[in-house]
TrEMBL record:
Pfam families: S4, tRNA-synt_1b. Residues 359-418 form the RNA-binding S4 domain. One of its GO terms (molecular function) is ATP binding. The gene is tyrS. One of its GO terms (cellular component) is cytosol. It catalyses: tRNA(Tyr) + L-tyrosine + ATP = L-tyrosyl-tRNA(Tyr) + AMP + diphosphate + H(+). PANTHER family: TYROSINE--TRNA LIGASE, TYROSYL-TRNA SYNTHETASE. This is Tyrosine--tRNA ligase. The keyword Cell wall biogenesis/degradation does not apply. A motif ('HIGH' region) lies at residues 67-76. Its main location: cytoplasm. Homodimer. ATP binds at K254. Catalyzes the attachment of tyrosine to tRNA(Tyr) in a two-step reaction: tyrosine is first activated by ATP to form Tyr-AMP and then transferred to the acceptor end of tRNA(Tyr).
Length: 420
């Protein structure tokens, strides 16, 4: 069986030809390079841009995401923002949903085999992916593909032929595989297939540029190698830094509960952005803000000169909330944040009815869905994070009498509870 790539834009131009770089090309290159960790190989990409300008043929720019969770967060938008910038330059962006590769499980950065998703989980998650990505990308100008289109037809013979194009020694150059092998941590054979399949996606799509986080560099390089093996012009690769989450340490992740979801309520999103450290704020500015680098540097200079960093954080928070909601929602989120910081109660808190009163505070917090469990509720009480009608609760054994009152957990969780 012969491996056949799906149709693209025809044969590439002569990669050895050297075209002059116009001011427009240099400007496009500067936009592409903003905030990136690496652009490999920059000279090749500059020539691709020059050829695109000369021929009027847009570059094919690929981003693959495995639908491993149903929601996107701001960490995902770092690379999506870059895609949108390149899209606005007139290039064809391809949003690739890895429905096939999700069933393998990406081992990147992991010290254990990642459990593959079921077909049902993949389909459920994929349903919301592009809708949410369209909050950043221009949906009308985005090509959506699923890598099962070309991976499923390969069959066993095709997979074996593909595997013959890469050696075990090449695979072991990958840092996480090497560490796991040296430590005696098992590496399943199917994990070697993941970077091969991701690389084959680039062959199938005839990609000119592939984007990803820094943890995807190895997989992106496999795409370059396979394209060369298939006689295609090699893609360039652009890696974006990983965005740390609210803890300022680990990369943003739902599993680590340090994330800001792009579909979260405006007040929740704004409150979480205001909780990041002053130092981390500048990385968020560089990777998430659409303001120019000159504007960001001006804001940094103002803060260095004595301006309150809180004002800079408010401006960032309003920009992000307005992007995913509206300018009015951003103003309301700021007002809500100020109200809460003064001990006030938001206007739009949920109302919850609970029966069985009187009831102990930990159980009531669980029943009102303000805490996931009574043990979490007791921890929050110990930390002074629980209030009833504004009064801090310190007694874990307190019995709450029937009635209506406002309960608060932490800075952002409120509920109007009716206990009967």
């Amino acid at each position: 069986m012969t491996l056949i790539a799906s149709p693209g834009n025809g044969p590439p131009g002569n990669p050895s030809a050297s075209l002059p770089l116009t001011d427009k090309v240099r400007e496009a290159l500067a936009i592409a390079k903003r905030g990136v960790d690496e652009l490999l190989i920059e000279s090749e990409f500059a020539q691709k841009l020059a050829r695109s300008e000369q021929t009027g043929t847009p570059l094919r720019i690929k981003l693959g995401l495995d639908p491993t969770a149903p929601d996107l967060h701001l960490g995902h938008t770092v690379v999506l923002n870059k895609m949108r910038q390149l899209q606005d330059l007139g290039h064809q962006v391809i949003f690739l949903i890895g429905d096939f590769t999700s069933m393998i499980g990406d081992p990147s950065g992991r010290n254990a085999t990642r459990p593959p998703l079921t077909r049902e989980q993949i389909e459920e998650n994929a349903m919301t992916y592009f809708r949410q990505a369209s909050l950043v990308l221009d949906a009308a100008r985005t090509e959506i593909r699923y890598n099962s289109e070309w991976c499923d037809p390969l069959g066993a013979r095709g997979m074996i032929q593909l595997a013959s194009r890469y050696t075990v020694a090449q695979m072991m150059e990958r840092d996480d595989f090497t560490k796991r092998y040296k430590s005696g941590t098992p590496i399943a054979v199917h994990e070697f297939l993941y970077p091969l399949m991701q690389g084959y996606d680039s062959v199938a799509l005839k990609a000119d540029l592939e984007l990803g986080g820094t943890d995807q560099k190895f997989n992106l390089l496999v795409g370059r190698a396979l394209q060369k093996d298939y006689g295609q012009e090699q893609q360039c690769i652009l890696t974006m830094p990983l965005l740390e989450g609210l803890d300022g340490i680990e990369k943003m992740s739902k599993s680590k509960n340090n994330y800001i979801g792009i579909t979260e309520a405006p007040s929740t999103m704004f409150g979480k952005l205001m909780s990041i450290s002053d130092d981390m704020m500048w990385k968020y500015y560089n990777l998430l803000s659409f303001r120019s680098l000159a504007e960001i540097e001006a804001v940094k200079a103002e803060v260095a000169g004595g301006a309150n960093p809180r004002d800079a954080k408010v401006a960032l928070g309003k920009e992000i909330v307005a992007r995913f909601h509206s300018a009015g929602a951003a103003d309301d989120a700021l007002a809500d944040f100020v109200n809460r910081s003064k001990g006030g109660i938001p206007d739009d808190i949920p109302e919850v009815s609970v029966s069985g009163g009187p009831m102990g505070v930990p159980q009531l917090l669980k029943q009102a869905k303000l805490c996931a469990s009574t043990s979490e509720a007791m921890r929050m009480i110990d930390q002074g994070g629980v209030r009833i009608d504004g009064a801090v609760i310190s007694d874990k054994g307190l019995q709450v009498q029937c009635g209506e009152f406002v309960m608060q957990v932490g800075k952002r969780k409120f509920a109007r509870v009716i206990l009967g």
